[in-house]
Amino acid sequence: MPVPSREDVVGIVAPHVERRGLDLEEVRVAPAGKRSMISVVVDADSRPDIDALATLSREISEVLDAANTFGEAPYVLEVTSPGVDRPLTAPRHWRRARGRKVQMTVNGKAVRGRVGALIPEPDPQSVEIVVPGKPGPQVRVVALAEIGKAVVQVEFSEPDPREVQLAQGVQGAGGAGGGHKERNK
């Protein structure tokens, strides 16, 4: 049973993903019994809905069938958007997570905060992180190069509105003492 390489599948599907204005985040190709499993993960600034994913899935399936990449062997195709647990590894991930709570390591130390603006745009080198503090939340500027693993956290309670406002760039949102920016040291 032929199992095409990940690179072969990327070469086939990437133009169709890009034509729809989506980012190709990940492609996985793996044998699964007598068939192959193909997982295509796409995203965009305005998250693709289930109808857009279904349309893209049909298009990719037709293209893979026409390319005869798998020969006569069956395959299972999954086209999806990333889950909340996807690591933030590219500037576009940080931009899309603005306002969300994040757990990350900065220079080996655990930091929890809320994602703010990327700076400078359009070629970001740093990100603003709103961290809780006394007397109120504060904005830290953290170099992207200093960030190790970073993932969005699921919030089960209402977030502090001051944190959300600071993350969205609302001036004076921190209240007394809040809103202070400091460079990561």
UniProtKB/TrEMBL annotation:
<comment type="similarity">
    <text>Belongs to the RimP family.</text>
</comment>
<dbReference type="InterPro" id="IPR028989">
    <property type="entry name" value="RimP_N"/>
</dbReference>
<dbReference type="GO" id="GO:0000028">
    <property type="term" value="P:ribosomal small subunit assembly"/>
</dbReference>
<dbReference type="GO" id="GO:0006412">
    <property type="term" value="P:translation"/>
</dbReference>
<feature type="domain" description="Ribosome maturation factor RimP N-terminal">
    <location>
        <begin position="12"/>
        <end position="85"/>
    </location>
</feature>
<dbReference type="GO" id="GO:0005829">
    <property type="term" value="C:cytosol"/>
</dbReference>
<dbReference type="InterPro" id="IPR003728">
    <property type="entry name" value="Ribosome_maturation_RimP"/>
</dbReference>
<protein>
    <recommendedName>
        <fullName>Ribosome maturation factor RimP</fullName>
    </recommendedName>
</protein>
<keyword id="KW-0690">Ribosome biogenesis</keyword>
<dbReference type="InterPro" id="IPR035956">
    <property type="entry name" value="RimP_N_sf"/>
</dbReference>
<keyword id="KW-0963">Cytoplasm</keyword>
<dbReference type="Pfam" id="PF02576">
    <property type="entry name" value="RimP_N"/>
</dbReference>
<comment type="function">
    <text>Required for maturation of 30S ribosomal subunits.</text>
</comment>
